[in-house]
Amino acid sequence: MTAPDVPAIPVRLARRPVIGGLVVPWITARTPDGRYRFGNVDYHRQLEALRDRLCQTCGGPLDPARIVFAMRDSDLRAFISHEPGMHPVCAAYSASGCPMLAGRISHYRATPLAAQLADLGV
Ligand SMILES: [Zn+2]
């Protein structure tokens, strides 16, 4: 097994937490003990980002003229995005750093949240 590529962190994301060389997106959910759950979205931050037009990666305000959406083919057909937008630089970083967007994995962890929390004794 080879180590995944770790892209350089853009200045815009320099203040975000980093795990394994990768920036933790602003919208990433956390467990009750504070650990990040990559691939899982914090519901309240998702709503905040959609309502206030914030970038899901850095949490900063978006420029309405330059928003990038990561969309599935089915979302494109319906012209709907269930995920908040991103700054172009944050989207470029996510596309190269996120194992799912970069195509290095095809699915997120299959363990249900309840089982993960039970493992933590929560
Ligand atoms: Zn951003």
UniProtKB/TrEMBL annotation:
This is Uncharacterized protein.
